[in-house]
Predict the 3D structure of the following.
Amino acid sequence: MKVKVGDTVKIIAGADKGKEGKVIRTIKSEQRVVVEGVHIVKKHSKPRTNNESGGIFEIEAPIHVSNVKVITEAEAKEIKKEAKKASKKEKVEEKVGKKATKKTSKKASK
């Protein structure tokens, strides 16, 4: 397995596709990894002793290694740059959209 504990990975398949996180734990025998904040499942547990409380807990479940891609620092920087460009582009589009709606609303009121 090429994925190690502490690596930053991106999910490339499944319900959490596109999310990123750090590897918390690896399970080599099953070829699975546990990624921080990804593939959250609910686990129901009964109280076993007098001090323990039962309930519903949310935990990170393992993901198969084939659904994960290791991200290097250079790739992480590129992804952040692309995200900044996309957010700037969205802001510009919002401003253009607001101006267009203001013009049409002024024409409609006349």
Observations:
- The chain has one helix and seven strands.
